[in-house]
Design a protein that fits this description.
This is DUF4421 family protein. The protein is mostly beta strands. It is 14% helix and 53% strand.
C-alpha cells in the first residue's frame, strides 16, 4: 500500500518530463510550432503593381550608412523681452556609422559613434547619444518603436555667456524619449513610402500618395540643477525658477503626402511632408521632486523627409535629410524643438545563400 502513491508520483513525473521535452522540441523548431498551434496560418502578401514598384525577395541586402544627428532646444519665458532671456541648448553629437543586412522581412545591424561629426563643435560640451529602433516596414502599414537618449547640452545664448569660455556647458542635462508610431500608405500598390528610406523596395516609375501617421511619445528633459540659470530667473515666472524636470506625453494624428520622382530609370528624388497639431500632456518637477504644474496644450509640429539617390537591381545609395520642428506655448515658458538628421547610405544586393533561405523558411510563418 505504501508503494501505490510513490508509483503514481513516478508516472506523473515521467508524463510531465515527456510533455516538457515535446514542448521544448516544438519551441526550438518554429516550423513545427506553426504546424501544431496554427495549422491554417498562411500569410499572403498583397500584390503590388510591378509597373511602379519592384521588390527583390530572393536577394540579401548588405549596406552601410552614416548618420549625422543634430537636436536643438530653445527654452524661454513668455511675454515681451523673452528672446533675450531664452536658452538655446545645442547637442554635440559625433556622426553614427552603421552596418546592416536584410532579407525579406528580417533585418539586423549595428552602429557606433565616430570621433568626428558633420554637426559636431569642439567648443560645446560632448553629448552622449544612444538610440535603439524596432521597426516593421510593410507596403501598406509601417510600425516603429524608437528610444533616444542624449546627455550633455550647451547653452549658446548671450545671457549665459561664461567668462571662462564662450558658452555655458550643461553636461548634466539629459533628454530621453520613447516613440511609438504607425503609418498607413493609401496608395501602397503604386507608391512605396519605404523605398527611399530602407531600400527594401524600388520605385521604378514616378508616383505619389496620401499618408496617415499616428503616434504616442514620452519625453523628459532634466538636469541635476534648475533648467535655467540664476541670471535668467528674474525674467521668468518665480514658479519656474527651481524646475529641474519637464515631462511630456504627446499624442499625434497627422495626415501627410509623399512622392518619388524617378528619372533616367535608376535615379530618384523623394519628398514626404507631415503637418500636424499634437496634444501635449506635460508637468514640471522642482528640485525637491515635487510636481508643481500639470497642464495640456496643442502644439504645431510639422516634419518632413527629402532624399535623392540611385537604385538598381544590385546597387543602391542615397543622401537624405530629415527635419522636425515644434513650438509650444506652455505655462510660464515657450519651448521649441528642432531635430535634423543628415544621412548617407550605400548598399549592395546579391542572391541570398542557401543557408539564409533555409533558416528564414524554418523560422518565419508560412507565406512570409
Amino acid at each position: 500500500m505504501k508503494l501505490f502513491p510513490v508509483t503514481w508520483v513516478f508516472f506523473i513525473l515521467v508524463f510531465f518530463v515527456s510533455a516538457a521535452r515535446a514542448q521544448e522540441n516544438v519551441l526550438l523548431h518554429p516550423d513545427k510550432f506553426y504546424k501544431k498551434f496554427f495549422p491554417r496560418l498562411r500569410i499572403k502578401p498583397a500584390p503590388l503593381d510591378t509597373a511602379y514598384i519592384k521588390t527583390y525577395p530572393n536577394y540579401l541586402s548588405v549596406g552601410t550608412h552614416i548618420l549625422s544627428p543634430g537636436i536643438r532646444f530653445n527654452l524661454g519665458p513668455r511675454g515681451p523681452g523673452s528672446a533675450a532671456a531664452t536658452s538655446h541648448f545645442r547637442t554635440n553629437i559625433a556622426d553614427v556609422m552603421g552596418f546592416s543586412a536584410s532579407y525579406r522581412f528580417v533585418a539586423a545591424g549595428f552602429a557606433f559613434l565616430l570621433k568626428s561629426g558633420l554637426q559636431k563643435n569642439d567648443a560645446y560640451a560632448p553629448s552622449a547619444y544612444r538610440t535603439a529602433t524596432i521597426k516593421f516596414s510593410g507596403s501598406a502599414y509601417s510600425f516603429q518603436f524608437k528610444y533616444i537618449r542624449i546627455k550633455g547640452l550647451t547653452d549658446v545664448s548671450d545671457i549665459n555667456r561664461n567668462p571662462a569660455g564662450p558658452y555655458r556647458l550643461r553636461p548634466d542635462l539629459l533628454n530621453k524619449e520613447f516613440q511609438l508610431e504607425a503609418l498607413y500608405n493609401v496608395n501602397w500598390k503604386k507608391y512605396s513610402y519605404t523605398a527611399p528610406i530602407t531600400f527594401s523596395q524600388r520605385q521604378v516609375r514616378s508616383q505619389a500618395g496620401v499618408l496617415f501617421k499616428a503616434g504616442a511619445y514620452y519625453n523628459q528633459l532634466s538636469g541635476d540643477s534648475a533648467l535655467i540659470s540664476r541670471e535668467q530667473q528674474r525674467h521668468f515666472d518665480p514658479a519656474f525658477a527651481n524646475i529641474t524636470t519637464l515631462r511630456r506625453v504627446t499624442f499625434k494624428v497627422a495626415p501627410g503626402v509623399g512622392g518619388t520622382f524617378v528619372f533616367n530609370r535608376r535615379f530618384f528624388a523623394s519628398l514626404v511632408v507631415f503637418p500636424s497639431v499634437n496634444l501635449y500632456l506635460y508637468k514640471y518637477i522642482d528640485q525637491s521632486q515635487q510636481k508643481t504644474a500639470s497642464r495640456e496644450a496643442l502644439v504645431f509640429n510639422p516634419e518632413g523627409k527629402a532624399s535623392i539617390g540611385y537604385q538598381s537591381r544590385r546597387f543602391y545609395g542615397g543622401v537624405r535629410y530629415e527635419y522636425e520642428w515644434s513650438s509650444a506655448a506652455l505655462q510660464y515658458i515657450g519651448l521649441s524643438t528642432v531635430s535634423r538628421y543628415i544621412g548617407f547610405e550605400l548598399g549592395y544586393r546579391f542572391s541570398a545563400p542557401r543557408v539564409v533561405k533555409k533558416v528564414y523558411r524554418k523560422t518565419m510563418p508560412p507565406g512570409m
